[in-house]
Records
---
Amino acid sequence: MITRAATVTEREPVFDDAFLRKLEQLELLARKIFRGLLRGERITARRGRGIEFSDFRHYWPGDDFRHIDWNVYSRLDQLFLKLHASEEDVTLHLIVDTSASMAFGEPSKFDHARRLAAALGYIALNNLDRVAVSAFADGLGAGLPATKSRRHIARLLAFLAALPCAGVTRFGAALRDFAACTRSPGLVVVISDLLGVGEAREGIATLCYGGHDVVVIQLLAEAEIDPPLDGALQLVDAETADELEVTVDPELRLLYRRRLERELEAIEHFCRRRGVEYLRASTAIGFEDVLLKYLRQGAHLR
Amino acid sequence: MIELAYPLALISLLAIPLLLALHLLRPRRRRVLISSLALWQAALREREGSQGLRRLLHNLSLLLLLAAALVLGLALAGPQWLTRATEQADIVLVLDVSASMQARSGIGRTRFDQALDEAASIVDRLPPNARLLVMTSGRRALLRTGFEADRGVLRQALREIRPGDEAGRPREALALALSLIRGRSDARIYFVTDGAFEPEVDPGSPKVILRVVGTPARNVAITRFDLRQEHGVEDRFQVLLAVRNYTDAPLVVPASVTLEGRELFARTLTLAAKDEQTLVLALTGRALGQAIARIEPNDGLAADNRAFALLDAPEVLHVLLLSRNNVYLEAVLAALPDTDVVKRDTLGNDDIAQLARSFDVVVFDGITPPPLPPGNFLLLDTVAPALPFSAAGRVTQPDIVASGPSALMRNIDLSAVRIEAARRVAVDPRTPGLQRLFWSRETDLALALIDESRKLVYLGFDLAASNFPRQTAFPLFVSQSLAWLRPRGAERVSNHIAAGSVISLSLAAGESQAIVHTPSGKAHTLAANDGAALYDATATAGIYRYSAGNVTRHFAVSLNDARESDLNRRWSPREQHPKADAGSASARGFQPLWPYLLATALLLLALEWLVWARSRGNA
C-alpha cells in the first residue's frame, strides 16, 4: 500500500464562493497597486512605432524611409533613422505545471497554482488586458486562447478547474513548445514546483530568448520543505514510479534540506541573472498573500 | 587439506533457497509516494561514499542468513583438517646422467653410484600414498616413468638408468620438471646432481630441492678432435686435437691418434695448471676411416680421455642419362665429382621401375618418359604422364620474371638467361610437394615435385634453344638438382656429432628403414621417411654403423665438451628445505572443524537478528 508524504484531502471545488469573494477583495486591493496592463500604460523595451523618442541609428538599405530624420540629413548630409519606443498591448500568459508531483501538499500545490493563476487572470481581465492560459506536464497541454473581456472570467475559471494533474514534468520541452507557438512576446508567468526538473533553467532561458518578460512562481509543499519521514521506507517517485529503499534518520533529513536549499538558491540565482522575476511560496501561505506580495514587488512593470 | 566426514550432509545446503524464499516473504518496507526522488538520491549519495556498499548494507540481513546457512551446512558435513599433508604431494626426481657423473675420486664409487643411492633413498622414504616421477637430465631431458606410486616400478626404473658420455643441460630438464608440476603448490622436484655446471641453470624455484653428490676429482680431457682432407689436395689431411688440464698442477699426459688402427702420431704433452694445448697436425695420405684420439692421464673421468672421428669414402652418385645428344649436359655431369654417368639414346624395352631402382637419378633429356615409378628423375624439355602438371602447347621467347625460394635455386642468377622456345605446362598449384622454381608470364619454366615415392625436377625448354647452358647458373642448377634428388651428406668432412645429439641419417630413395649398430654392438631399427631417418640413442661415445639396403656408413660420437669435462662444482646449492623432505613423513591427524563452524553460524545468526531488529525499529 502506498501512502503519500502529505495526504491530499478529499477534493473540493477549487473556485468556491469564498474564493470568488477573495478575488473581488483582491481586485480592489490590486487596483491601487496594479496600474494595469492597458495599452499605452505599459511601455516595453521593444522599439517600434510609438510616439516617445528612443534613439537614433544609421540608415541601412531596406529601412523605412518615413523614419529618416530629414532634419539631421539636411545638416549632416547623413541618413539617420529616428527610433521610438513601442507602446503595445501585452498578453499575460499563465503557464501552469500539471505534472503528478503538483498533487502534493495541503492544500495541494496544484490547487494553489490554479488559484494563483485564476487570481492573476481575473485581475488582468478586469484591467482589460489579454490573458492566455497553458498547462504543461510532459509537454505543452491544454490551452485557453488569449481573451480580453471581463466576460471571459467564467471561462477562465472553468478551464482551470478542469485541468488534470498527471504526467511527468518535461519542463524544457514544454516551454520550448510554448515559445515556438507564441507569436508576440508578452508577460509569461510560470507556476510550477520545479522539482526533479533538471531542465528548468533551459526552459526559462528559452522564454527569455523569445523576448518574453518572465515571472517564475515556485510552489512547494510543507512536506517537501521539511518531510515528515522516518525509518525504513521505500520511496516511490510520483512521476516516474522509480523506487528507492532508504532508512530516513535526522542526518539524512538534514542533508535533504540542505540539498533542497541549494537547489532553490541555484534556481533563484539563475533567474536573477536572466532578469527573470522569481517568487518562492509554500502552500501553507494563502494564495492571496502570495499574489499581493508579488503585485507589490511590481517588477513585472517596466 | 580438508576432508568431509559426511559429504551427504551437504544436502542441507538446500536450505539456502528456502531462506531466500522466507526473506522474500518478510514484511516489506513501507512504501511512501513522494513528488520527486531526485533530492533524496542526491542526499543519499552525499551520505554514502559508495552506492555498492549501500546496496550491500540493504541486504546485510539476507547475506548474514545465507552465510549462517552455508556454515551450518558445512558443519553438518563434518569437515576435518588433514594435518601434515605436504608429504602427499607428487614429486619429480631429476637424475643427472651427464658425463661428469661418471667421475670418481681415487678408487671410490662414481658420482652416479652416489646419485642412485640418494634417489633410492628418496624412493624408500616416500609417504605411503605419494607418487614420484623419474626423469634424467643429459643432453636431453627424458622421462623414465610417469607419476608412479609403485616403489618396485620406481626402483626398477632407477636400476636401468646409466650415465652417458654426453654434456648435461640441466636447465632444460628443470624447466620440464617445473612444467610438470605447474599449478600444484605442494609438489616438489628433487634434483640429484654433482653440480658440475654453470650457476645460471638454477631456475630459482623454491620447489627445486638439490641433492648434491660427489667429491672433487681431477681431470684432463680431450676437448676437441677432428680430421679433414685438405681442400684440393687428395693426399694430405689435417688432424685437430685439443687437450685441457683442469687440475691446479702441471701434468705430463701421453697422447696418441690412430686411423683405422694405424698410429698417426704419439707424443707426450706437458700441460700447465688449467692449461689447454691445441695441436694441428698436417699428415700425408688419404684420410679415410675411423680415427681415435687417446690420452692417458691418471684422472677421475675416463669418458673424455678418448674421442672419435671418421671420414667415410664419398658416395658415388649413379646417373642414367637418356639423351640423344646434349654436349652441355654431358659436360656438366662429367665434371661433377663422385658421379657415375651411364648414357643411352633411348629407353628401349627396359623396365623403367628397375632402372629407377638401379640408378640414383634418371635424366630424361627430350625423351618422352613413361609413367614414372618410384625414384628420382630429372626431366629436360619433356613431361611425363600422370603428373600434377601436363603439356599445354609451346610459348616463344618467354622472359623469366621470377624464381621461387626453393633450395634448388640457391645462388642461381637467371637474369642473363634467354630462351627461344619453351613448353607451356598446365599446373595444379594445390598439389602438395610441388615447388615452382622459376617461371615466365606465360608458363612455369622449372618445377620440383616430391611425393611419397618420387622426386623429380622439371626444366621446360631445350637447352640447345637457350643460352642457359652457357651461364654459370647451369652447372649450379644441375648440381643442386642432383643433390636435392639424391642427398649424399657432406663430402670429405668428418661425420661426427656430440654425444646425446640427434642425427639425421641420409638414406637412398625408396629405403624404408635403416639399422644402426651402436659401439657396444646393439642394433636399432629405424623407420625412414623421405630419404632420412632420425636417431637419438647416441649417449655413448664411439663409432656407430648404420646400413640401409646395400649401403653401409658410419658416424662418430664424442663428448668433446670443455664445460662438461670440468668436474668442479660451480653450482652452489641453495638452502635446503628440510620440511619438504620426502623422508620426513610422519603420522597424519585429523582436526574436526565442525565446532568452529557451528560457533560461526550462531554468531552470524545473532548478528542477523540484531540487524533485523534495528531495521524494524527504525521502520
---
Amino acid sequence: MDRKVVIPGDLLSEDIKKSGEGTYVKNEKVYSLLYGLANYRDKINVIPLAGKYVPAPGDNVIGVVKDITFSNWIVDINSPYDGLLHISEFPKRIESDEMSNYLRIGSSIMTRVKDVDSTMKVELTLSDRKLGLIKTGRIIEISHTRVPRLIGKGGSMISMLKKELNCNIFVGQNGRSWINGSSEDMDLALKTVLLIEKEAHTNGLTDRIVEYLKKEKGAKS
Amino acid sequence: MEECNDNISFFKEGLRLDSRRPDELRPIKIEAGVLARADGSCYIEMGGNKVIAAVYGPREVHPRHLQEVTRAIVRYRYNMASFSVEERKRPGPDRRSHEISKVSREALEPVILTSYFPRSVIDVFVEVLQADAGTRTAGINAASVALADAGIPMKSMISACAAGKVGDTLVLDPMKEEDNFGQADMPVAMTPNGDITLLQMDGRFTKDEFSQALEMAMKGCREIYELQRKCLIGKYAQLETEPFLEVQVCD
C-alpha cells in the first residue's frame, strides 16, 4: 500500500476520477483538503490525523445522555453536534413522564445514527438488538480518525481482538468503544486499544498487535 | 509612519543592521501540536517574534445567535501579552488588535471549507508572547499550521510575510528598528499558488516599488510555506521513529 503524508493544498493527481475522500478538484486536478495520510488505491483518499467526528447515517456510536426534553433524550456523541433520541425510537413504548426511568442523565448508550439533515440535526435510534443502555464493562475514548484501524480491513483487527482478549467489544464510529469481559482481560484490552491509537498510522499493525498480545499473555502465565 | 530620519543608517556594507541581505527573512522556527488541550496548535518564532496559536473546533457556537445554519463561522482573536513589548502594553483588546483579528480572519477564511460544518464555530486564538515587528504575519503563519494540525479541511495553507522600505531601499521582513523608522511596511498573506488573501500597506511606495515589494513579499511567503510544510510533515516522521511522548495533563 502506497501512503504518504500530505498537507492541505498538495497536488495528488491529474486524473479527476481519482478524487476520493479528503480531496477536492480544481482545474481538472486533484488536491488534498486535509493534513493526513494519502492512500493511493483506485481512488486517492486522505485520512486525517486529527479532527472532530461528524455523524453520518448508519454509524454506530456510543453516547452519554446529557439532557431530557419532553420527548427526546439529548445525547452527547463526542461531536460538535448533539444527537436526539426520540421517545418513539426506544424499543419499548413508554410515556414522556417515565423517560428518566429508562435512560437518565449520565447514562451511556450504544446507539445508531438514523438520520442527519442538512442543518446537522442528528436523529438516533435504539431499534436493534445489539443497541441499548450500557450496564457493565468499560468505555474507552480514542480519536475517531483511528477507528478504521481499530476495526481493520474487513473487520480483521476487531475480530482478532475479540477472540484473543475474550472480550465483547463494540466500536463506535465516534471513537468511543465499549469493552466487556473479565477485569484482567479488560485491562489488557484497554492497553491494546491505546496502542492501536498510538500506532494507527504505521504499516502491518494487525500482525504487530498479535505479537504484542502473545508477549503480554506470555508474561502473565 | 515616521518620515525617514537621515541620522539613522539602516545598512552597513550592503547588509542590514542584523546582517541580513535586503531580501532575506529572519530565522524561523515552527512547531506544531504544542498544546494538549487545543484541537490544533502551533508555536512560531520569526526573528524576535514569539507567537503561539491555538485552534478549537469545530464546536458548538456560544452565544447561540452568532451561529449560521449553512456554514461554520470562524473567530480569530489576536492578542498581545502585556509583556510582549518593551513598554508594558495595557492588556485587553484595543483598536489595533481588533483590526488585526479581522484582517487575519479574512486572510484565512477563504481557504477553510466552512460549509462542511454547519451551525458550528472554529475558534482561532493567537497570543503574541514577544513582538518584534510583523506579529500579524507570524500569527497568520502559526494559525494556518494550527488549523491543519486540528484536521480542519482547507483548500491550501496560508503563508504571510511583510515587505518594507527603509532608507529608500526595499527590504523583506522588516524588524522592529526598520518598522519604526522606515518609510513603508506592507504585510501580505497568500496561498502557495499566489492567491493573495491579505494585503495592507502603511507608508508610501511608488508604483514600481509597490510591484517590486509585492514580488519580494510573495517570494518570502513561498519560503515560509516550505517551512510550514516541513514542520507538519516532520511532526509525523517523528511519531514514526521515536516512541510517542505521553502528554501529562494535571486535572
